[in-house]
Amino acid sequence: EAGVAQSPRYKIIEKRQSVAFWCNPISGHATLYWYQQILGQGPKLLIQFQNNGVVDDSQLPKDRFSAERLKGVDSTLKIQPAKLEDSAVYLCASSLGQGKAFFGQGTRLTVV
Amino acid sequence: AQSVSQHNHHVILSEAASLELGCNYSYGGTVNLFWYVQYPGQHLQLLLKYFSGDPLVKGIKGFEAEFIKSKFSFNLRKPSVQWSDTAEYFCAGDGGSQGNLIFGKGTKLSVKP
User: Fold this and answer.
1) Nearest-neighbour CA in chain A from B19: distance (Å)
2) Chain B residues lying within 8 Å of A41, measured CB to CB
3) Which secondary structure element, helix H or strand E, spans residue A68, and what is its range?
4) Which stretches of chain A sit within 8 Å of chain B by CB?
5) pLDDT digits (tens, 9 = 90+) for A20-66
């Protein structure tokens, strides 16, 4: 079974630049999550989609972060403009519903 | 507010030693609990989960966890660790209707051969 695919694996940008991450969930998984994992901390939910609708984006910094899930499959997460404190690993996960979530390998973002 | 806390930041053990990693949760109602593991350079993987029923849950690779409602705890255990268990372990809870996970800060386990 193919897992959750994310790209790129690594990204280095300067502050105030923009960046986008891409996620392809496991086929058939209606629920998609984006998490932010800052070094030394556990993953923190940014946004949750159910098909192409947003279920929870209460912790998404909407002044600079945006996400979309077109056609209820792939998703992109964008940061514009980036700040130093956005340096983290961005994890995408998908699931059939409540319960077991499958995670991608993440995108490690460094903002300098 | 819902939260999950893990007691230990870094645990160092020798092979064959027994392991117990602490996890406490704070939820108002029904809660589902999980342990995830992240091996070096790999993605997060589910070790085990508790939804209801038998409070002693067995997972992959010889791991188990016990849900103790009176203590709001869900500690992870393994009777004899191996060098290959070196990884970071995350406790997580899902107490809402949305199904999203709230993670603890993680415990890094280093097993010396």
Assistant:
1) 20
2) 105-106
3) strand A65-68
4) 3-4, 31, 33, 40-45, 48, 55-56, 91, 93, 95, 97-101, 103-106
5) 999 999 999 999 999 999 998 899 999 999 988 999 999 999 999 99
Q: Residue B27's Cα: distance from chain center in Å?
A: 16
Q: Which residues of B touch A101 (CB under 8 A)?
A: 46, 101
The token pair that represents A41 in the structure block: 């901390």
Q: How far is CA A92 from CA A55, A78, A106, B51, in A?
A: 15, 13, 7, 23
Residues A59-72 have pLDDT tens digits of 999 999 999 998 88
Mean pLDDT of B13-37: 91
